[in-house]
Amino acid sequence: MSTKRSAWLSWTTLAPVAALVVLALAWGRHPGTVAAVAVGIFLIGAVLSAVHHAEVVAHRVGEPFGSLLLAVAVTVIEVALIVTLMVGGSGDTSALARDTVFAAVMITLNGIVGLSLLIGAVRYRMAVFNPEGAGSALMTVVALATLTLVLPRFTTSHPGPEFSSAQLTFAAVASLGLYGIFVFTQTVKHRDFFLPVSTGPGSGSVDRPVDGPVDLDGDGHADPPSDRAALASLALLLLGLVAVVGLAKVESYPIEDGVDFLGFPHSFVGVVIALLVLLPESIAAGRAAARNRVQTSLNLAYGSAMASIGLTIPAIAIASIWLDGPLVLGLEPTQMVLLLVSVIVSVLTVVPGRSKSLQGFVHLSLLAAFVFLAINP
């Protein structure tokens, strides 16, 4: 009885409820500095709890479905933040979707991947994963990023780095199609390519078991929770997402005011959104790498990048029907150079199927360059 009571009184259970209470109190107001910080704390708590409950449900359905569910949940939060800031933002928000999606791609390709490879290589001498699964995911990310973020810079039907209505529709449909095909490949056709590779410390062999929690069902995680616990987490996940959407609307002005106060470019708002929503993914990927499950870390990283493009761009395309102003998707030249270098480095990382700590440092260096140039373009 005491165990059940402590579970219901845990922060992951209380955070969504508390966030909804704060949302009811703050809705329709423009909070001051102190109130904005308080709302921001509850917003972060709602994000972390939402992804935690998504992970609980993910444990129940197994891998790679778990990584997929977690990526979709995070993307819902990302879309909510983008749309609410585009609607309620005070500055120029025409490029907010582009900046946020590109930031998510850079954080996943270099930040989450780099952190995971570094943790895995330092702890087990080599970070080992399945190159067929990781390569398929990376290939899809590159195709999606090129179709939605690079091509608008070179099309001529519409002035500026924007798609015409027909081009935007095609990009949205193509993104959904590519994402759907990948999900089918990951979960049905070639599911074994995306399962964790079992290796001993520093070994390239796939025959020895992984050290870590008991995993009787072989899904790459600890044994899954009960149906009752999974349903409770699903309900709390939905409450958390509602709280995140509402609190993001409340925080729209303070986020922009904070960026302006620091003297950063307005485009850095997109980086803030991406950092916020991908923080839980980074933690989950780091934990998986520490348990010698780097494949799960890469599933989370590339899956989040894919969902960020394949689901966010169609959602923003639909929302643009009701949003005023242009929708800028084409990357700037500096951003395209960073994307190109990240793709080349990612390919060289994925092809061998195992990685030293050097690759992790290189990816993290590219992330540092992206953040620095976002502040000092």
Automatic annotation (TrEMBL):
This protein's record includes keyword Transmembrane: yes
Main location: membrane
Region Disordered, annotated ranges: 201-222
Pfam families, sorted: Na_Ca_ex
Entry's transmembrane regions: 7-27, 33-53, 65-89, 101-122, 134-154, 166-185, 229-249, 261-279, 300-323, 335-351, 358-375
Residue span, Sodium/calcium exchanger membrane region domain: 34-187, 233-375
Topology with respect to the bilayer: Multi-pass membrane protein
Family annotation (InterPro entries): Alkaline_pH_Ca-Antiporter (IPR052946), NaCa_Exmemb (IPR004837)
Subcellular location: Membrane
Keyword terms, alphabetized: Membrane, Transmembrane, Transmembrane helix
Protein name as catalogued: Ionic transporter y4hA
Species for this entry: Nocardioides conyzicola
